[in-house]
Amino acid sequence: MLISLTNSPSTGGGSIDASLPSLPKMTHHHLVFKGSLHNPLLAPRGVWSVDGKLMVSDTGQNRVFIWNEIPTSEFEEPSLVLGQIETTDTGRNAGHQVNASTLQYPSGIWSDGKKLIIADAWNHRVLVWHSMPSTNGQAADVVIGQPDFMSNQPNNHQIGANPTAQTLNWPYGVFSDGTHLWICDTGNRRVLFYEKIPTENFKAADEVIGKSNFFERDYEDFQPIWPYSARINEAGQMAVADTQYYRVLIWNDWRTANQQNADVIIGQPDFSSNGQNQYSLFPKPNAMNWLYDTFFYEKGIFVVDTGNSRVLWFKEVPKENNASADNVLGQFDFNTGSENSNTKLGTDKQLYWPFSICVSKQNLILADTGNHRVILYQIKN
């Protein structure tokens, strides 16, 4: 059932400290969703929704679930599972050798309702289905990052091997506008760009963001250090969640991202700064800790501030470095950052290391990873 949501802590009948800032509600209903009743979610790290469908990377159990309709109760059986043959199976690569049907630590998801793309992170590859899967364990049509479906070594060789335009190393994030494709090649500290979604295996990327060529692994502080997700909005802006430097990099035009440094930094005052919560014990409205995802919405942007167990909302995409957020979800103020801050057992209003976010129409969908659940919010108009 849907429950009314506020940004305030549960007080168990007591009063809320009047000195705390009063923040407007961002959402007015939400549903805590835990997946299958008989085999619930374990550390889900990827969520996506399109055409009324819900897709979840059940990362800890090496599978991706698809629900053909947005769930309306705490537990619902999935319409199908990818990476496994049965919804109760959980083994890495389905307990066998890697192939076109298996997954190992799936993360980012993107779909337009026709194509489906999944970042199969620990197999060091990205899988593409040219049409939406219709059966459990359906094989992917294309593999990116590996020469075939039976290979899964980092950079197609071994840990420490230099990358090429064809290889991947721990790719965690994927995004497309329906034509182009961006892959966060996290372990290689770069974002790869493809002019078109590949239709053949081992396709070379067309451009690289964060490096001067396809063969470098070293980095400078003005480059994406540990890019975990990439997003593009309708205005052509690009956001990269740069986890290891506790910041989001914004390019005002994604077409320039391979040619110049980011235009704006969220979470730090400049490129050389890299402190958790800007070297503070407690978070602030302009400081973050281990952020893993963003999502553009209307004129603004959501930032998943994972290490502070919260989601920050900027009602307009910042135009200058070090902007302060306008609102927060998961904590009752901007200065609280502990997981399940009001009780170690957690409540329906608290978060524990959220990783991934998606907005589809008025639905805000969040992978509340540390609590092994997905939360389905309705954004308040």
Automatic annotation (TrEMBL):
Superkingdom per UniProt: Bacteria
Name of the protein this chain belongs to: NHL repeat containing protein
Species in which this protein is naturally found: Arcicella rigui
